[in-house]
Each structure stands twice: as structure tokens, then as C-alpha cells.
Specification:
Elements lengths: L2 H12 L9 E8 L14 E8 L6 E9 L13 E2 L3 E2 L6 E2 L10 E10 L11 E4 L11 E4 L13 E8 L5 E9 L1 E6 L2 E2 L15 E8 L7 E10 L16 E10 L2 E7 L5 E3 L3 E4 L9 E5 L9 H5 L4 E6 L5 E4 L5 E8 L2 E4 L4 E17 L8 E7 L13 E6 L7 E3 L5 E9 L10 E8 L2 E2 L1 E5 L2 H15 L2 E2 L2 E2 L11 H14 E2 L1 H14 L16 E2 L2 H4 L1 H13 L3 H5 L1 H13 L1 E2 L2 E2 L8 E2 L16 H25 L3 H22 E2 L4 E2 L4 H9 L5 H18 L10 H11 L3 H8 L7 H6 L24 H8 L2 E3 L8 E4 L9 E8 L2 E10 L2 E8 L4 E5 L6 E4 L2 E4 L4 E4 L2 E8 L3
Parallel strand pairs: 14-22, 20-27, 36-39, 43-47
Antiparallel strand pairs: 1-2, 2-6, 3-4, 3-5, 3-7, 7-8, 9-21, 10-15, 10-18, 11-14, 11-16, 12-13, 12-15, 16-17, 18-21, 19-20, 23-30, 24-25, 25-28, 25-29, 25-30, 26-27, 26-29, 31-35, 32-44, 33-34, 37-38, 40-41, 42-43, 44-45, 45-46, 46-51, 47-50, 48-49, 48-51
Helix pairs in contact: 4-7, 4-17, 5-7, 9-10, 10-11, 10-12, 12-13, 12-14, 14-17
Length: 888
């Protein structure tokens, strides 16, 4: 049956059939929002598909799902796992699998057909597949690593571990399950299995490690086979949580399926062999100490063929006892190389030194093809995201060393570490590298691009594109970091500030599933939460960082229609809110103590000069407003999962805290809250603290603060940007945001761009990191305000969506595309005098509701003039042209 797996992985992407002709196509079948995942967790899989139609008004009114253990059984008469029958429903996103229970190792093939609004049945879709991973009790192997204790070698290297085994024939399906503490790459018979890098994804290693599943079937041959696992340390380093050995460890199990039965044919144990690969890890993986790799070209194998491997000096491996912890299937896509960038400039930088400019900042590995080197020649490579005022790398904390073999054709490439950089300084080369010999590989988690924005203002396009590209430099290993080169930590505050933007621009549901699991694993018995997840050591932040587990889980549900996170982690959210209550005084949250796993107590952060972000009044105001937000979200979550009594409790707590904030932080003499900064004024209005009777006065205070005190600039930081953005979208303050974005002097996004930025900075003035997640929250404004695409929280996953473009004075057209769980939604508008003409495309399964301006008493829809009868115009699936006058 093995030959079916790869065939059906491909077929799901390309094969789909029409509904009584070519008007309807079923496509993009997914399990857990991933195409054909191998080794998923063994709970209930969730299945999704999309429908494409060339006719307006197409709707799914029913579906039928078939699932089978063999593709030859995938028909109505023989489907042995599930035949749902005709189910009257328009649901097509994240449907729970409803067939026979799935055991560990199960392989499932499935397909779907639908009935349209005229009760016409489609043909069956192409077949998709997924497999279930090992249950924890099914693991038979031992954790093994290089036996450094019994040799002169250190196990902290990046060793090769080898095992030879025989195959009688190639008729079966063979899966490899691998659970690595550190990083791994898998090779079979000299060929790399999979395109992933830096696997597995991150986890809280003292609580949980992850395993991946690989299909070895296409790589095997009859007779003797070579299996090699190449290991690297990653976060598995001495002194960090969960580490019990100086070097990386792995547990491996290879299983073959024949005639529906599985047989274990390889496990990891002391019978394996180890080899010092020539790669050595540098750095402790603490802040400013991520180092790189030292490579001895004379020791690195030329290839991993059997002939080459047989000539190496193999060493024993050690079986290592690892404390019991959860071992889970990786829930997110692996990392991959999404772009290869060639150096744009190479110039002298001293004696035998060369400064290389890659043209833009990136996160990933370097690939350097050297000219002829002498044996033992040492090359030093330093990386930096920007240059100092002397034209030198601004920091020298990222570096690699290469020692030449002298054999010619030598290439350096990172394997188990990476860098955040734009510039390389290469020392030790007497001749300049040739043009094209230096490449950079942009690496990130394998999520899909899901958006596009362009408008008539090139400044706006430049800001949007910089933010969109920045996320590709911040998301790897199944989480989102603050910066890749200095801290590499999954800060909740940075995540909170950018979740709406990131989830609008990309399909990141699996990434957030992995990240939220780490957050849940990090909660302490008393309900305390850290500021980062995973939480390898103490890091700074505040409540806005800790409460990320609440807000990010909810936004993942709203943006992707995925209910699993809010259901699974609801108890964790409740536990943390109990901790908040413990540190509230007279109903208001006050500073809690620092701990060994977190420090500081921030409100807003990374504000421009002139803002006292540590002022007590602002810190307390911001944090209590965030608690209101958490209560508001928890009320919604509780109602969604059927906890109505809890929902009432959170609604009451929300109301009580709103009143307390108004009483303690509002100054009626000045119509301001807290310190009167942008965030101190916008946050109470956004969170329902400000009474309706005062809304106009506080809004005026916000405009005055911006235009007079801040000369029209954005004057807030990491927390304030998304707060101000959300308030502006909801209150149609488009011209305010647009005018702030048009500023070119400090502090502004255009100031970054005019000073060479290709990714957003950590501070408005460019201090420290030039690849950072502080200010990306503004990105949702391009889609929700200018593009006018606003998801309806009551109908999540873009099941229903509001269309309401906000037209700034200065933009005359905009094209916005959002790939939703149902398909592609696009809104292209052009301003014609005082009339707005909108071309829309609404995917099947999505219901769009266009919001008419108050002055639009008539409008034109698809060539027909209509009188206004409601504020909303219902738009069925398909293509539409809508026109209406804008208010003068």
C-alpha cells in the first residue's frame, strides 16, 4: 500500500471535480489546517475543504464524507472508517472527524462531496490523507546521543547517529517517528528525508517534547539500508529547562505496515553508532549569546552515501535516561526555506576582510561558496542587522567559524543555528568572494501567505510590505519571537501586539496551536504566567504579556474558525485570572512580585522619547484596561463553549472593573485618563470604560494630544500601537491614522524606511534590534480600515464578514485580498469623485455584509440601482460591483 501515500498527497492539491459541470470545484482539503499531515495527535482530527464556483449565489447545503484505511476502499460501499451519509449543513471548516476511533499509527484516506443550493450533488473530491502518530505508550526506543563521557569528544557537537537495517522488499509503508531533544535532520541511503530545517518546533522541554513523522517508503531499497540522524543542540543546552545531557538526544522508531499490521523494525538504542560530524555549536542560547557554528571542513563528510559512511571512524552512542514528560506530535508545519537571496554588494573591509550586503534583513542561514582555500585556513564570519556609524557590523554577537579542508569546492552553510542579519563580515580571505557565491536562505515555519494589499499611496505600500515581510523573519519553530538575533524569545506582549495583523496576513492557525501549547505548559501551580513561552529563563513584561493565552486563543478562533484552543485552554485562562484577582487591591490590579521566571511590570513599552512609559498612573491604567479586555474575551469564550454561568460572572467583573477604572483614573478637569498619552486615552474608550456622555470629550483629548503635543506623530509603543489601531478602525478615525503614517521624521515608520529599514525596529530610533516585533500591530489597519474587511466575531473564521472601506483623504484606490478558510475574499475599490466603486469577490461559504455610509440613500449593486432599506447590503458568494456616494 506504500505507493498510495505520496500519490495521494499530490492528488489532493490538483484533483477536484465539478458539480454538474465545471461551475463548482472542491479543493484545498486539509486536516487540522495542514495538507496531508503525518503523525497528528491522536485526538479528534478536524477536516476542512473549500469550494470554488463561477456562478454567483452558490452555497453548500449538505456534504458527505468518506474515510477509509486504504484508498482502494474509498467509496460508499467499502469505506471502512466513516461514511457520514448526506449531512444537511453548510459547514466546511474544521469539522470534527466522526468515524471509527483511530488508533496509534492509523493512516486515513478521505474525500468529500457536496450538494449545492439546488440540491445538486457534486462529484467526489480528490482523495486526501493524514496519519495518526504514536501514543506515548507505544514508544520502544531509548534516547541516545554521542557518548562523550567515554571518549575524548564532547557530546555538545552535532553528531551523526547511524543505524543499518535490512528490508526484504519494498511493498510496505514505512514510517519513521523521531522525538528529538535539540534539532535533527534525517537521511536514508544518502538522501535527506523532507525539506524541513531546524526540526522539531519549540516546546517547554521540562514539560513536553515533540515528535515528527516521516514517510521513508520512497527512500528505501531491498536489502541493506542506511539511516542517519544528524543532531544539533538548539534549545537543549546545559542550564536550560529539561536538559539532562550535554549534547542533543533523539529517540527513533521505524515501523513498517504490511497487510494492515504494523511491525517495529528499528529503534534507537546502544547498537547505533556515532560520528563527530565536524559541526560544533557556539553560544549558550541566552540573550546576546546565540553565537553560531564552528565547522571543521576536514571532518564534515563529503556526502552520506554508504561508501563514505563506511570510511568514517564511528564512536559508541550512549543511552540516556530522560525524566518522564509529555511527548506530543508536532502540531505545526515544519520550517522551510522560503526564499534564497543573493548578495547585492561585496566590498573590502580591511586586511583579507570583506563586507557583504544581502540587500535586506532576514532570518535564516548563510551559504558561502569559497574560492580555493588552504588546508587549515580559518575563516571568520560575523553577522549584523545593521552597521554602526563607522560602517562596521553594529554588534558581533552572531558569528560562524570555518576551517578549510583544502580539498577545493568548499561550502559553508548553517545547519543547526541561524542568524538575523543583513550584513556579513568575512575575514580570512585574501581574495574577494565572487559575485553570486554568497547566498542567504530565509527560513520560517511553513505557513501560507494569505493576504495582499496595494493602494495609490506608495508610502502606505512600503509600510505594509515592510510589516508583512517582517513576520517572515519572526516566525520559525512554531512560535513568534521578539527578535531572532538577540533574544529569540516568544514574548506574549509582542505576540499580543501583532496577533491580529499576523493572522490576517498569513495562515498561522497551526503555529498558534503549537505556541499556545507552550503557554499552557508554562503556567505555575498558583496561576502565575511567564512573559515568554517557551520560558527558558526569566524575561521582562507585564500582564499584557501573561494574558496572551486568552487573547491569542480567541483571535485564532475568530480568524480561522478553529475552536480547539479556546476549548482546550479555557481552564488555563481561568487559572491565570484567579492569579490576577489575588494581586488586585480594592478591585484594581496592582504590581505583583518578580519571580525566578519573570521580571518587570510594564504597561506600554518601547515608546518614543518624551513618553514616560513607566509612570505609575499609566502602567496601572493600561494593565487594568487589559484585564477588562480579558474579562470581555472570557465572556465570549465562555458563551461559545457553553459555560453560560461563567459568562455572566465575567460580564459582571468586566462591568465592575470598568467603573473602578473610570473612578480612579479619569480627571474631569482635563478630560484625560492616567498621564494623558495616546494609549491612556484610547484604551479606556476601546474597553468600554468611558461613558457615552464623555466619549466626545475624551476623543478630542486624544486628537489634541496627537496633533498638538506630539506634532501629529504616533506616540506610543508595543501595547499602544494595536490599541490605537483597533480604536481607530472601530471609530472611523482613518484620517488620523493616515496622517500619522505619512510622517517621515522621528518617530514614524517612514523614518525607519528612509533610514534603510526593510524590517521593523525594536525602538523608533533604531536602537538595538532592527528585526523586531514591537510595532507591527498597525498592519491590520490596511485590511480592516482601508481594505474594509472586518471579520464578524459572532460568525468566526470569516463565515460572515463586514465590508466597509474607510477612505483616507489622499488615497484614491486600494486592492485588498484575504485568503479566508472558505477561499479568496477580495475588495478592490476606486474613488470616482464623491462615489466609491467597489469590485468584490466573495468565496462560497462566506457571507459578506457591505456597510453603507449614513448619507447613501441609494446605491448600485451589480448594475441595478437600489433604495436603502438597511445599513447593511447582503452579498451572496461570487463577484459583485457595488457603488455608493461617500459623505462629503
Amino acid at each position: 500500500m506504500s505507493y498510495f501515500i505520496n500519490f495521494f498527497v499530490i492528488v489532493v492539491l490538483f484533483v477536484s471535480m465539478g458539480c454538474n459541470g465545471p461551475s463548482v470545484k472542491i479543493y484545498d482539503l486539509r486536516c487540522g489546517d495542514i495538507v496531508a499531515p503525518l503523525g497528528i495527535v491522536s485526538d479528534i482530527p478536524h477536516l476542512s475543504w473549500k469550494i470554488r464556483s463561477d456562478q454567483n449565489g452558490t452555497q453548500q447545503q449538505a456534504y458527505q464524507l468518506l474515510a477509509a484505511s486504504d484508498p482502494r476502499l474509498l467509496d460508499e460501499a467499502n469505506a471502512d472508517l466513516w461514511n457520514s451519509g448526506k449531512v444537511v449543513s453548510d459547514a466546511s471548516v474544521m469539522l470534527p472527524y466522526g468515524g471509527k476511533p483511530l488508533a496509534s499509527r492509523s493512516i486515513v484516506y478521505w474525500k468529500v462531496r457536496v450538494w449545492d443550493e439546488k440540491d445538486r450533488a457534486s462529484r467526489w473530491s480528490g482523495a486526501a490523507m493524514f496519519s495518526v502518530g504514536l501514543d506515548q505508550s507505544d514508544w520502544k526506543g531509548k534516547y541516545i546521543g554521542l557518548a562523550g563521557a567515554s571518549t575524548s569528544f564532547s557530546p555538545a557537537q552535532c553528531p551523526l547517529l547511524r543505524k543499518q537495517f535490512k528490508m526484504k522488499d519494498k511493498d510496505g509503508t514505512v514510517f519513521l517517528y523521531i522525538n528529538t531533544l535539540g534539532y535533527h535532520e534525517v537521511y536514508v541511503n544518502g538522501r535527506k528525508v523532507g525539506e524541513d530545517l531546524l526540526s522539531p518546533a519549540v516546546s517547554q522541554l521540562d514539560k513536553r517534547s515533540l515528535f515528527l513523522t516521516y514517510d521513508l517508503t520512497p527512500f528505501l531499497k531491498k536489502g541493506k539500508n542506511d539511516l542517519v540522524v544528524w543532531l544539533g543542540q538548539g534549545w537543549y543546552r546545559p542550564g536550560l529547562p529539561g536538559t539532562v545531557y550535554d549534547g542533543p538526544l533523539t529517540k527513533v522508531q521505524v515501523e513498517e505496515q504490511r497487510d494492515g499490521r504494523w511491525e517495529t523494525i528499528v529503534v534507537s538504542d546502544a547498537s547505533w553508532q556515532g560520528y563527530e560530524s565536524g559541526y560544533y555549536s557556539i553560544g549558550s542560547w541566552r540573550p546576546h549569546q546565540f553565537g553560531g557554528e564552528r565547522v571543521d571542513g576536514a571532518k564534515v563528510p563529503e556526502d552520506l552515501s554508504a561508501d563514505t559512511l563506511d570510511k568514517l571512524e564511528w564512536l559508541p552512542v550512549a543511552e540516556v535516561d530522560v525524566p518522564l514528560h509529555a511527548v506530543s506530535a508536532q502540531a505545526t508545519e515544519p520550517n522551510f526555506i522560503s526564499e534564497v537571496i543573493t548578495a547585492v554588494d561585496i566590498r573590502p573591509a580591511g586586511d583579507s576582510a570583506w563586507l557583504v550586503d544581502m540587500g535586506k534583513t532576514l532570518t535564516g542561514c548563510a551559504e558561502i561558496h569559497f574560492p580555493k582555500l588552504q588546508a587549515g585556513q580559518k575563516i571568520n564570519i560575523v553577522y549584523s542587522d545593521h552597521l554602526n556609524n563607522k560602517g562596521e557590523p553594529a554588534n558581533k554577537e552572531q558569528y560562524d567559524y570555518y576551517t578549510a579542508s583544502g580539498k577545493g569546492g568548499e561550502v559553508f552553510r548553517n545547519k543547526f543555528n541561524f542568524h538575523g542579519y543583513r550584513y556579513l563580515k568575512i575575514s580570512g580571505l585574501a581574495v574577494p568572494p565572487e559575485a553570486g557565491s554568497i547566498k542567504a536562505c530565509l527560513v520560517h515555519t511553513g505557513y501560507r501567505h494569505a493576504s495582499a494589499f496595494e493602494c495609490s499611496d506608495n508610502d502606505m505600500n512600503a509600510i505594509h510590505d515592510m510589516i508583512q515581510y517582517t513576520f517572515r523573519c519572526l516566525t520559525f519553530g512554531g512560535y513568534m519571537v521578539d527578535c531572532p538575533q538577540i533574544e529569540r524569545l516568544g514574548y506574549g506582549g509582542d505576540g499580543n501586539a501583532s496577533t491580529q495583523t499576523a493572522q490576517t496576513m498569513y495562515d498561522m492557525a497551526p503555529l498558534y496551536a503549537n505556541w499556545m501549547q507552550a503557554w499552557a505548559d508554562c503556567i505555575r501551580p498558583d496561576g502565575g504566567m511567564p512573559h515568554t513561552a517557551p520560558n527558558p529563563y526569566s524575561a521582562g513584561g507585564g500582564p499584557y504579556w501573561c494574558g496572551f493565552v486568552i487573547t491569542a486563543s480567541w483571535r485564532t478562533y475568530v480568524n480561522y474558525g478553529d475552536p480547539r484552543l479556546i476549548e482546550k485552554y479555557y481552564p488555563v485562562m481561568q487559572q491565570w485570572l484567579g492569579y490576577v484577582t489575588e494581586y488586585s487591591v480594592d478591585g484594581l490590579l496592582k504590581r505583583w512580585p518578580d519571580t525566578d521566571y519573570r521580571g518587570w511590570y510594564l504597561g506600554d513599552w518601547a515608546c518614543p522619547r518624551g513618553i514616560d512609559q513607566q509612570a505609575g498612573a499609566s502602567v496601572d491604567l493600561v494593565n487594568n484596561c487589559f484585564v477588562v479586555e480579558c474579562y470581555r474575551v472570557m465572556e465570549k469564550i465562555a458563551r461559545t463553549i457553553g459555560k453560560n454561568t461563567d459568562a455572566e460572572k465575567y460580564a459582571l467583573q468586566q462591568k465592575e472593573l470598568q467603573q473602578l477604572i473610570q473612578q480612579h483614573f479619569f480627571d474631569p478637569a482635563t478630560d484625560k485618563y492616567g498621564t494623558g498619552t495616546q494609549i491612556d486615552l484610547a484604551y479606556p474608550m476601546l474597553e468600554g470604560v468611558t461613558p457615552d456622555s464623555l466619549m466626545a470629550k475624551v476623543t478630542n483629548s486624544l486628537y489634541y494630544e496627537t496633533e498638538q503635543n506630539r506634532q501629529g506623530h504616533i506616540a506610543c509603543g508595543l501595547v499602544g500601537i494595536p490599541v490605537l489601531t483597533e480604536w481607530a478602525v472601530k471609530n472611523q478615525a482613518t484620517d488620523l491614522v493616515y496622517s500619522m503614517l505619512k510622517k517621515r521624521d522621528y518617530p514614524s515608520y517612514l523614518y525607519m524606511i528612509d533610514n534603510g529599514a526593510t524590517t521593523t525596529w525594536e525602538h523608533w530610533n533604531g536602537d538595538r534590534s532592527r528585526i523586531h516585533n514591537c510595532y507591527n500591530g498597525i498592519g491590520s489597519w490596511f485590511y480592516q480600515a482601508v481594505g474594509g474587511i472586518v471579520p464578524d466575531e459572532e460568525n468566526p473564521g470569516y463565515r460572515e464578514v463586514f465590508i466597509s472601506p474607510q477612505v483616507p483623504d489622499g488615497i484614491t484606490w486600494a486592492k485588498t485580498t484575504k485568503e479566508t478558510p472558505y477561499g479568496t475574499l477580495s475588495v478592490d475599490w476606486v474613488l470616482d469623485g464623491n462615489k466609491l466603486n467597489i469590485d468584490l469577490s466573495v468565496p462560497v461559504g462566506c457571507k459578506a455584509k457591505a456597510v453603507l455610509p449614513k448619507n447613501a440613500t441609494v446605491y448600485t449593486l451589480d448594475g441595478m440601482e437600489c433604495k436603502r432599506t438597511d445599513d447593511l447590503v447582503a452579498l451572496e458568494s461570487g463577484k459583485h460591483i457595488l457603488s455608493y456616494p461617500l459623505a462629503k
